[in-house]
Design brief:
Elements lengths: L5 H81 L3 H84 L2 H13 L6 E5 L2 E2 L8 H9 L4 E2 L6 E3 L3
Parallel strand pairs: 1-4
Antiparallel strand pairs: 1-2, 3-4
The structure holds zinc ion (ZN).
Amino acid sequence: MLFQDADFQKLLLLHSRDRRFQKLRQDVKELPEELARMEKKIAVEKESVELALAEWKGLESENNSLEKEILSMNESINRQRNKQLEVKKNEEYQALENEISNLLAKIEDRENEQIEILLKIDGARETAELAQGKITERVAEMEKQRDERAEQGEEKKTELLDLEKEIEQTRQEVEPSFLSSYDRVTTIVSRPPYMAPISDQKCSGCHLRVSNDVVSSALVEKKITQCDQCGRIVYIER
Ligand SMILES: [Zn+2]
Protein backbone atom coordinates (compact mmCIF):
# COMPACT_ATOMS: atom_id res chain seq x y z
CA MET A 1 0.00 0.00 0.00
CA LEU A 2 1.77 3.04 -1.37
CA PHE A 3 -0.41 5.57 0.39
CA GLN A 4 1.21 4.98 3.75
CA ASP A 5 4.72 5.03 2.32
CA ALA A 6 6.79 7.95 3.65
CA ASP A 7 8.15 8.75 0.19
CA PHE A 8 4.66 8.84 -1.24
CA GLN A 9 3.51 11.10 1.59
CA LYS A 10 6.34 13.47 0.65
CA LEU A 11 5.05 13.50 -2.91
CA LEU A 12 1.54 14.29 -1.65
CA LEU A 13 3.00 17.14 0.37
CA LEU A 14 4.75 18.49 -2.72
CA HIS A 15 1.49 18.23 -4.63
CA SER A 16 -0.50 20.16 -2.04
CA ARG A 17 2.19 22.87 -1.93
CA ASP A 18 2.26 23.09 -5.71
CA ARG A 19 -1.50 23.53 -5.78
CA ARG A 20 -1.41 26.19 -3.09
CA PHE A 21 1.36 27.91 -5.05
CA GLN A 22 -0.68 27.92 -8.25
CA LYS A 23 -3.76 29.25 -6.46
CA LEU A 24 -1.76 32.04 -4.80
CA ARG A 25 0.00 32.93 -8.03
CA GLN A 26 -3.36 33.24 -9.76
CA ASP A 27 -4.74 35.44 -6.95
CA VAL A 28 -1.69 37.69 -7.07
CA LYS A 29 -1.95 37.94 -10.83
CA GLU A 30 -5.62 38.93 -10.68
CA LEU A 31 -5.16 41.42 -7.86
CA PRO A 32 -4.31 44.58 -9.87
CA GLU A 33 -7.38 44.10 -12.02
CA GLU A 34 -9.55 43.47 -8.97
CA LEU A 35 -8.23 46.60 -7.27
CA ALA A 36 -8.84 48.62 -10.43
CA ARG A 37 -12.44 47.38 -10.52
CA MET A 38 -12.96 48.43 -6.91
CA GLU A 39 -11.34 51.79 -7.63
CA LYS A 40 -13.72 52.37 -10.51
CA LYS A 41 -16.78 51.58 -8.39
CA ILE A 42 -15.56 54.03 -5.73
CA ALA A 43 -15.09 56.72 -8.39
CA VAL A 44 -18.64 56.17 -9.68
CA GLU A 45 -20.07 56.55 -6.17
CA LYS A 46 -18.04 59.70 -5.54
CA GLU A 47 -19.14 61.12 -8.85
CA SER A 48 -22.81 60.60 -8.00
CA VAL A 49 -22.31 62.74 -4.87
CA GLU A 50 -20.58 65.42 -6.96
CA LEU A 51 -23.43 65.40 -9.46
CA ALA A 52 -26.08 65.73 -6.76
CA LEU A 53 -24.18 68.63 -5.19
CA ALA A 54 -23.70 70.32 -8.57
CA GLU A 55 -27.41 70.02 -9.31
CA TRP A 56 -28.30 71.63 -6.01
CA LYS A 57 -25.72 74.42 -6.35
CA GLY A 58 -26.84 75.07 -9.92
CA LEU A 59 -30.44 75.59 -8.79
CA GLU A 60 -29.31 77.87 -5.97
CA SER A 61 -27.42 80.06 -8.38
CA GLU A 62 -30.38 80.15 -10.79
CA ASN A 63 -32.51 81.31 -7.88
CA ASN A 64 -29.97 84.01 -7.02
CA SER A 65 -29.98 85.45 -10.52
CA LEU A 66 -33.77 85.51 -10.57
CA GLU A 67 -33.71 87.26 -7.22
CA LYS A 68 -31.36 89.91 -8.59
CA GLU A 69 -33.40 90.37 -11.73
CA ILE A 70 -36.61 90.90 -9.73
CA LEU A 71 -34.84 93.35 -7.45
CA SER A 72 -33.52 95.42 -10.34
CA MET A 73 -36.94 95.46 -12.02
CA ASN A 74 -38.48 96.71 -8.79
CA GLU A 75 -35.85 99.45 -8.66
CA SER A 76 -36.70 100.49 -12.18
CA ILE A 77 -40.39 100.63 -11.30
CA ASN A 78 -39.51 102.99 -8.46
CA ARG A 79 -37.55 105.17 -10.85
CA GLN A 80 -40.47 105.30 -13.31
CA ARG A 81 -42.82 106.25 -10.47
CA ASN A 82 -40.52 109.11 -9.46
CA LYS A 83 -40.40 110.28 -13.09
CA GLN A 84 -44.19 110.19 -13.21
CA LEU A 85 -44.25 112.80 -10.42
CA GLU A 86 -42.19 115.15 -12.57
CA VAL A 87 -43.81 114.82 -16.01
CA LYS A 88 -46.35 117.37 -17.15
CA LYS A 89 -47.87 115.77 -20.23
CA ASN A 90 -50.51 113.10 -19.95
CA GLU A 91 -49.01 110.96 -22.76
CA GLU A 92 -45.59 110.99 -21.04
CA TYR A 93 -47.26 109.85 -17.86
CA GLN A 94 -49.09 107.11 -19.76
CA ALA A 95 -45.86 105.94 -21.43
CA LEU A 96 -44.24 105.53 -18.03
CA GLU A 97 -47.35 103.74 -16.79
CA ASN A 98 -47.04 101.26 -19.68
CA GLU A 99 -43.40 100.58 -18.85
CA ILE A 100 -44.37 99.96 -15.25
CA SER A 101 -47.08 97.48 -16.14
CA ASN A 102 -44.68 95.68 -18.52
CA LEU A 103 -42.18 95.38 -15.70
CA LEU A 104 -44.84 94.15 -13.28
CA ALA A 105 -45.85 91.42 -15.74
CA LYS A 106 -42.22 90.37 -16.11
CA ILE A 107 -41.79 90.30 -12.36
CA GLU A 108 -44.79 88.02 -12.06
CA ASP A 109 -43.29 85.63 -14.63
CA ARG A 110 -39.97 85.60 -12.82
CA GLU A 111 -41.65 85.04 -9.47
CA ASN A 112 -43.49 82.01 -10.87
CA GLU A 113 -40.19 80.64 -12.19
CA GLN A 114 -38.69 81.25 -8.80
CA ILE A 115 -41.39 79.25 -7.02
CA GLU A 116 -40.69 76.26 -9.26
CA ILE A 117 -36.97 76.53 -8.66
CA LEU A 118 -37.44 76.80 -4.91
CA LEU A 119 -39.45 73.58 -4.96
CA LYS A 120 -36.70 71.88 -6.98
CA ILE A 121 -34.10 73.20 -4.57
CA ASP A 122 -35.83 71.45 -1.67
CA GLY A 123 -35.73 68.12 -3.51
CA ALA A 124 -32.17 68.62 -4.74
CA ARG A 125 -30.91 69.59 -1.31
CA GLU A 126 -32.51 66.51 0.22
CA THR A 127 -31.00 64.27 -2.48
CA ALA A 128 -27.57 65.86 -2.14
CA GLU A 129 -27.55 65.58 1.63
CA LEU A 130 -28.70 61.99 1.48
CA ALA A 131 -26.05 61.21 -1.12
CA GLN A 132 -23.37 62.90 0.92
CA GLY A 133 -24.34 60.96 4.02
CA LYS A 134 -25.10 57.51 2.70
CA ILE A 135 -22.68 57.40 -0.20
CA THR A 136 -19.82 58.87 1.78
CA GLU A 137 -20.39 56.09 4.28
CA ARG A 138 -20.51 53.49 1.52
CA VAL A 139 -17.39 54.91 -0.11
CA ALA A 140 -15.54 54.70 3.20
CA GLU A 141 -16.58 51.05 3.49
CA MET A 142 -15.50 50.33 -0.09
CA GLU A 143 -12.17 52.04 0.45
CA LYS A 144 -11.64 49.95 3.54
CA GLN A 145 -12.34 46.76 1.57
CA ARG A 146 -9.97 47.88 -1.18
CA ASP A 147 -7.19 48.53 1.33
CA GLU A 148 -7.77 45.15 2.93
CA ARG A 149 -7.57 43.41 -0.45
CA ALA A 150 -4.36 45.27 -1.25
CA GLU A 151 -2.91 44.24 2.10
CA GLN A 152 -3.96 40.61 1.61
CA GLY A 153 -2.31 40.79 -1.80
CA GLU A 154 0.97 41.85 -0.25
CA GLU A 155 0.72 39.02 2.28
CA LYS A 156 0.08 36.56 -0.53
CA LYS A 157 3.16 37.80 -2.38
CA THR A 158 5.26 37.11 0.70
CA GLU A 159 3.63 33.71 1.17
CA LEU A 160 4.31 32.92 -2.48
CA LEU A 161 8.03 33.57 -2.03
CA ASP A 162 8.14 31.44 1.13
CA LEU A 163 6.22 28.67 -0.57
CA GLU A 164 8.57 28.72 -3.54
CA LYS A 165 11.47 27.99 -1.20
CA GLU A 166 9.49 25.26 0.59
CA ILE A 167 8.64 23.63 -2.73
CA GLU A 168 12.27 23.68 -3.77
CA GLN A 169 13.18 22.04 -0.47
CA THR A 170 10.40 19.42 -0.73
CA ARG A 171 11.40 18.52 -4.27
CA GLN A 172 14.85 17.63 -3.00
CA GLU A 173 13.33 15.33 -0.42
CA VAL A 174 11.02 13.43 -2.78
CA GLU A 175 12.24 10.09 -4.09
CA PRO A 176 13.72 10.84 -7.59
CA SER A 177 11.67 8.29 -9.58
CA PHE A 178 8.46 9.54 -7.91
CA LEU A 179 9.45 13.09 -8.69
CA SER A 180 10.08 12.39 -12.37
CA SER A 181 6.72 10.57 -12.67
CA TYR A 182 5.03 13.50 -10.97
CA ASP A 183 6.73 16.08 -13.19
CA ARG A 184 5.72 14.11 -16.27
CA VAL A 185 2.09 14.03 -15.10
CA THR A 186 2.07 17.81 -14.59
CA THR A 187 2.98 18.22 -18.25
CA ILE A 188 0.29 15.86 -19.60
CA VAL A 189 -2.64 16.74 -17.32
CA SER A 190 -4.16 20.02 -18.44
CA ARG A 191 -5.16 21.21 -14.99
CA PRO A 192 -4.64 20.25 -11.35
CA PRO A 193 -5.00 18.11 -9.34
CA TYR A 194 -2.14 15.98 -10.60
CA MET A 195 -2.73 13.36 -7.91
CA ALA A 196 -6.17 12.02 -7.02
CA PRO A 197 -7.51 9.38 -4.66
CA ILE A 198 -9.62 6.57 -6.08
CA SER A 199 -12.98 6.11 -4.46
CA ASP A 200 -15.75 3.73 -5.61
CA GLN A 201 -13.33 2.67 -8.33
CA LYS A 202 -13.48 6.19 -9.75
CA CYS A 203 -10.56 8.55 -10.22
CA SER A 204 -11.48 11.69 -8.26
CA GLY A 205 -9.48 13.77 -10.74
CA CYS A 206 -11.48 12.97 -13.88
CA HIS A 207 -14.45 11.23 -12.18
CA LEU A 208 -14.23 8.32 -14.58
CA ARG A 209 -14.15 4.66 -13.66
CA VAL A 210 -10.67 3.16 -13.61
CA SER A 211 -9.87 -0.43 -14.63
CA ASN A 212 -9.46 -3.28 -12.16
CA ASP A 213 -5.77 -3.35 -13.04
CA VAL A 214 -5.41 0.26 -11.90
CA VAL A 215 -7.21 -0.51 -8.63
CA SER A 216 -5.11 -3.56 -7.88
CA SER A 217 -1.93 -1.75 -8.85
CA ALA A 218 -2.83 1.11 -6.50
CA LEU A 219 -3.57 -1.38 -3.75
CA VAL A 220 -0.55 -3.63 -4.14
CA GLU A 221 2.28 -2.00 -6.06
CA LYS A 222 5.05 0.01 -4.48
CA LYS A 223 5.34 2.13 -7.60
CA ILE A 224 3.33 5.03 -8.96
CA THR A 225 -0.02 4.13 -10.55
CA GLN A 226 -1.71 6.41 -13.07
CA CYS A 227 -5.37 6.72 -13.98
CA ASP A 228 -5.93 4.91 -17.28
CA GLN A 229 -8.40 7.64 -18.29
CA CYS A 230 -6.66 10.93 -17.49
CA GLY A 231 -3.11 10.01 -16.56
CA ARG A 232 -3.23 11.47 -13.04
CA ILE A 233 -1.36 9.71 -10.27
CA VAL A 234 -3.98 7.76 -8.36
CA TYR A 235 -3.87 6.15 -4.93
CA ILE A 236 -6.17 4.57 -2.41
CA GLU A 237 -6.42 6.28 0.94
CA ARG A 238 -6.03 3.33 3.19
ZN1 LIG B 1 -8.54 10.08 -13.94
